[in-house]
Design brief:
single chain; alpha+beta; two-stranded antiparallel sheet; 7 helices
Length: about 170
């Protein structure tokens, strides 16, 4: 006898072969899907000033560009930043840009492990500086883009914020 036509079986719902995925409403109420918590962590950026590289770069160069805001982040997160949209940059002389970026590149290579301890593991650390935005403008822009901002640069080293206070 075909059970689909049996009146006794009509009241029962067929059991699904696999569990159904959670509804979007359930996820909105705070329940997590299989993605985990990692997807919800904001990206981190380490911000500082060029003067924070004192002892790492040439003293005259550090003095000349001391207040220039600099940053380090996971390269894949660079697409999230809108800093140059909010604060268009005036053109810098090519030699200046290459010199400053060279110092940042060398710092990132030398301090890779310490940077990754704060940023997270990565194969590519991104970095940059802004030619004319203020430090506060750069901080606010990264915060507006959803970054967690860490101030962990001191005399050419990456120093976690709580150790810097001592």
């Amino acid at each position: 006898m075909d059970k689909r036509r049996d009146p006794k079986e009509r009241g029962r719902a067929p059991e699904p072969a696999e569990p159904l995925p959670p509804d979007e409403e359930e996820l909105d109420e705070g329940e997590e899907g299989e993605e985990g918590e990692d997807d919800e962590l904001p990206p981190t950026v380490i911000l500082g000033r060029f003067s924070d590289l004192r002892g790492f770069a040439d003293a005259a160069l550090v003095k000349k560009y001391a207040e220039r805001p600099i940053w380090f982040l996971i390269e894949d997160d660079a697409d999230l930043m809108e800093l140059f949209v909010r604060h268009p940059e005036k053109p810098a002389p090519r030699a200046t840009a290459e010199t400053l970026l060279g110092v940042l590149r060398s710092f990132a290579a030398a301090e890779s492990e310490a940077l990754q301890a704060l940023l997270g593991p990565t194969d590519q650390i991104g970095f940059g500086y802004h030619e004319n935005a203020s430090f506060d403008d750069v901080v606010a822009s990264f915060e507006d883009d959803g970054f967690e901002v860490a101030f962990a640069l001191y005399e050419g080293k990456v120093v976690p914020e709580d150790e810097d206070d001592e």
